[in-house]
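As a warm-up, study this chain.
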Amino acid sequence: MATAFFTDLDGDNDIDILSTLYQKGAPNIANQTAQIYIQDTAITPLIFTNTGCAISSCEVSPLLPAGLGVNIDDNNCVISGTSTMASVSQIYTITATNVTGDNTATVYITVVIPGMIELIVSDIDNEPLSTQRTLSAYE
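Now compare it with the structure written out below.
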């Protein structure tokens, strides 16, 4: 966000100095709840809503499951795509950056084979508990 200030130094009703002040501050994104996606099915975009200053880049570590990516959409970091391979539950860190600084958020993502459902029980801090079980759709 920018605020422009116009100054008429000599009184002739024209602009002699144009100053622009830019809002300074890092982006601010929040953690997301654990996500379970189905292989070869497009996901509903996962939006890391930014309540801070403008985002210039979004990065993820480690790399997302094949077919998923992170980008900027409407000043938010967004994970989208179609996962092409199953993957075990893993925590991913999203980093939103601008010239002032950065901010991180996390999400657990699991990609399951169609017909399989993985139940993930998490505590209040979004940390997976040791009890996990994979069920077939018929069980």
